[in-house]
Amino acid sequence: MANNNRIFVGTFAESTSLTNFSVKIGYISVLNGKITQKGFIDEFEQLEKSGVLSDYEIIKLSKDQFLIPGFVDCHTHAPQFPNIGLGLDRPLLEWLAKYTFPLEKKYQDTEFAAKVYDQVVQRLLKNGTTTACYFGSLHMEGTLELVKSAINHQQRALVGKVSMNKINEAGYYNDTEKELKEVETFVQTVIALKNDLVEPVVTPRFALSCDKILMDGLSKIANKYNCRIQSHLSENLQEIEYVLETNDNCKCYGDVYDKSGILNNRCIMAHAVHLTDDELKLLPSRGVSVAHCPASNTRLKSGLCPVRRLLNASITVGLGTDVSGGDNATILDAIRRSMDVSTYLELQGQPNSALDWKEAFYLATLGGAEALNLDDKIGNFEVGKDFDALLVDVYAKGGQIEKYKDTLETTNEEYASDLLQRFVFLGDDRNIVQVYVKGVKVKDNL
Ligand SMILES: O=c1[nH]c(=O)c2nc[nH]c2[nH]1
């Protein structure tokens, strides 16, 4: 049975929308990486009896285990991992100049890049991030190392070579023509790999790093190859002030990108903390999604993103860890911080702001998949989607969730939902005992 055909029998939890969450006890069958069938336990027992399952590995989960969809990290900076936990006493623009640009410059060295990226990809997979949307660095060869690492370790990844052409103190920018050539070559190279897990993303860093000529050119490349485009938007008040000062024909930050044709339904913007009412209309009208990055918004004191306002404005939102502005690379942390930040807003007088754990779970799975336009492939256990999943053992040995004698009389489904709730609030990588990407087991601690 060397194939990856498996049937999982036990509890599985998933979202089908922000408000629709379900926990079921049954089975999921996976053939050639795809979910082919789903049903109740008695249906599985019939299949088992009929002998049609001989080609499958059957995995029966214990009462304390369950399957959830793999986590989606909509925004992180792979080259910044060596700086995790450093410089967070500075605001965004100072932090970029003093810590981030000097580190990112080092990825000129492809050997260094390959080493760091290999660690990054493995670390994220171990923590259940089956899909990541990455910023690389300014360097084409270095960023191709990130592509290689994702492919080698079987992570689903959208990878961007960062574009910058505005002069900065660190000397970390490119000549415009060279930059556009390199981006096109990067996009062509990744597409030519024909790897079904990895795609290129056109990545203007932000409006303070790219002038209009560069952004127009990047927008053309993204349209020509039909690829995604990612950047940062309205993260910090000082940043917004400088953007508006240097673009006097624009009435809001979003306008700067819109004038270059960057805002469309293949675009994901990180942060969006301080959107104006006009931007709250502009983004959904263009189909732009947002990567909500609560850790970095708090650490760099950028602000508390009013996620509920974004959701109410029909903006599609996923979660981002945003290392190293964010100090934690795991989506479990982003889930918790999204609940915290939204709760602070409610406590400060914005009614109904707080996200509950089921909503945060949606943002981390299906919401992220929708934000990256990957929800036809991943995000939940719909039949026909790829099997990207985490097998969670709530009371795994060495983990920090302790088992007490059950105190409540519950149905099996309620018990399972309580388990998931505990994992969401308290779990970590020790509870994620197996990780699957497109049906391939990429972590096994069972
Ligand atoms: O959190 C952030 N991290 C970055 O690297 C960056 N660059 C521009 N704006 C940014 N914000």
TrEMBL record:
Instruction: Cite the cofactor comment.
Output: Binds 1 zinc ion per subunit.
Q: Name one GO biological process term.
A: guanine catabolic process
Enumerate the catalysed reactions: guanine + H2O + H(+) = xanthine + NH4(+)
List the keywords (alphabetical): Hydrolase, Metal-binding, Zinc
One GO location term (cellular component): cytosol
Top-level division of the source organism's lineage: Eukaryota
Instruction: Tell me its EC number(s), please.
Output: 3.5.4.3
Mind telling me which Pfam families this protein's record contains? Amidohydro_1 (PF01979)
Recorded GO molecular functions are: guanine deaminase activity; zinc ion binding
Alphabetized InterPro entries for the sequence: Amidohydro-rel (IPR006680), Guanine_deaminase (IPR014311), Metal-dep_hydrolase_composite (IPR011059), Metal_Hydrolase (IPR032466), Metallo-dep_hydrolases (IPR051607)
Residue stretches making up the Amidohydrolase-related domain: 66-440
Q: In which pathway does it act?
A: Purine metabolism; guanine degradation; xanthine from guanine: step 1/1
| Cofactor field | Zn(2+)
Q: Which family does it belong to?
A: Belongs to the metallo-dependent hydrolases superfamily. ATZ/TRZ family.
> PANTHER family from the entry?
GUANINE DEAMINASE
Provide the function of this protein. Catalyzes the hydrolytic deamination of guanine, producing xanthine and ammonia.
What is this protein called in UniProt?
Guanine deaminase
